[in-house]
Fold this sequence. Notes:
The complex is a heterodimer. In chain A, strands 2, 4, 5, 6, 9, 10 and 11 form a 7-stranded mixed beta sheet that branches. A 4-stranded antiparallel beta sheet of chain A has the order 1-3-8-7, with no helix packed on it. Chain A has no helices and 11 strands. Chain A has strands spanning 4-7, 10-13, 19-25, 31-37, 43-51, 54-57, 65-66, 76-78, 87-94, 100-102, 106-110. Chain A is mainly beta. Chain B is mainly β. Chain B is globular, with a radius of gyration of 13 Å. The chains are: A mainly beta, B mainly beta. The A-B interface holds A 4, 6, 40-43, 45, 59, 90-92, 97-105 and B 1, 30-31, 33, 40-45, 48, 86, 88, 90-92, 97-98, 100, 102-103, 105.
Amino acid sequence: xxxxxxxxxxxxxxxxxxxxxxxxxxxxxxxxxxxxxxxxxxxxxxxxxxxxxxxxxxxxxxxxxxxxxxxxxxxxxxxxxxxxxxxxxxxxxxxxxxxxxxxxxxxxxxx
Amino acid sequence: xxxxxxxxxxxxxxxxxxxxxxxxxxxxxxxxxxxxxxxxxxxxxxxxxxxxxxxxxxxxxxxxxxxxxxxxxxxxxxxxxxxxxxxxxxxxxxxxxxxxxxxxxxxxxx
Lengths: 111, 110
């Protein structure tokens, strides 16, 4: 059973607020990922990390930033939330190849 | 980059077989995966197939791969209401990246 956690599960916040979505895994995986999922289901990779102090932007341009100071922790920050950031955010980790383990997601609504 | 395409929706009756189809463009994809997403949850890895295989069976799940046509399918035998979910295929390529299809929503009617 994979152990990857995301908090909060649901968040409603006003425009202009700074928010951090937390993601932690206890499996010691080097690779971690953040995806944004449309209401229409499609997944978009927005950030990834191959290890401590390594972060890269994904396919979808995002105004968010990430950090990877510890192996187990990969938080995502939005400095100034906007309604266009309303979405489901999924965090995942991987030890090898394409086998990714996903957290339960954070559903963000920006009003 | 790779494109992975899936039909959006499939509806079946309980007890029937479900077949979810996927096409991909990158012939260098070494592994192809099927993930399942239940409502309100993240994705869960269901099964995978290596690119030099034609078929893989795992209990009620059968994966078929046609490399020539770049076509992947997932067959679920004796489909149950608990199988209702969104199913994603994904290709893992030489660039060490996983590319997901848009997802197929499977609805199982009692």
